[in-house]
Task: structure prediction
Amino acid sequence: MVHEYRDRIYIRKDILLKLYEHGELNQSKLMSYCGLNNVKHKGILDDMVTKEMILRTEEPWGNKSIIKYKISDKGKEILQAVLEPYEELFPRKEKDE
Result:
């Protein structure tokens, strides 16, 4: 299996889009849906929380806690105003190319 490089802007767009579609996801499902590695890409999530693009909550679950993410209003605005037009201008390469 070939793993293609994905620009960080597309990773951010994928995260925002999945959260927009699903409302709220735990960290494990979000990373899985976006095809990301928990260890390698956690920094991107943290950065998006810091920049208030997504919201992070922790819910106790026994002696552990579940981390959940949700898109913020600012994240929705960025998705519609910046990331969608960006992908129209610079579409991802098709597999056939």
